[in-house]
Amino acid sequence: DSGVTQTPKHLITATGQRVTLRCSPRSGDLSVYWYQQSLDQGLQFLIQYYNGEERAKGNILERFSAQQFPDLHSELNLSSLELGDSALYFCASSPLPGGQAEAFFGQGTRLTVV
Amino acid sequence: AQSVTQLDSHVSVSEGTPVLLRCNYSSSYSPSLFWYVQHPNKGLQLLLKYTSAATLVKGINGFEAEFKKSETSFHLTKPSAHMSDAAEYFCVVSEGTSNTGKLIFGQGTTLQVKP
Question: Does the beta-carbon distance from B103 to A94 stay under 8 Å?
Answer without folding.
Answer: no
